[in-house]
Input
Amino acid sequence: MSGFPGSPRLVKGAIVGIDPFNPLASIISFQYNPDTMTRQIEAQTTRSDDGDRGEALRLKGAPVETISLDVEIDATDQLEQANPLAVSSGIYPQLSALEMLVYPKSSLVIANTILLAVGTIEIIPPAAPFTLFIWGPQRVLPVRISTFSITEEAYDVNLNPTRARVQLGLRVLSYNDLPITHPGYALFLAHQVAKETMATLNTVGNASASGSLSFSGGVSTGM
Output
């Protein structure tokens, strides 16, 4: 049954993994958007507790932001529709796509093993996929998965998981973390510019509503 034609289209959150060695990006769209998301923001200041008072307000870069959320994955609807992938594997493919964001590629592991076997002294650790956390048009963020917990809650007859809850901890990567040539550098900078625009809109809206004058070294109101 189709929904009400005037109802807003639901935008689903997602995590996307982009691997330069694989032209097909790994897209994990949230089946159900989490009801809550916790964001912790830690300012990066230059002043220590015993530092110069003149440095108290200086910032050395973007704050460190961490995001934690719970994602639910359920194959019930797909099983009712006899989806071939869900029938044969449950939600194992979705869980695998998430887990591969924190695994090195097996081909690189094999290549490094061969290099070690032939006496190569220095081996460069494999890089994780370039991972994006997408939460609406205002928040498309480069992230690193820092914590990962899966609670499997139901299985099919072949012990494939059919329902699970995934707890994700994400560390947002800013221009402090990435080289200027990395696409995530420009992406985070664009995110900050959009955030600054939103903050300005809020300030203008509040000033118009309260009738207050601009702040210039002192407090002044329209009263």
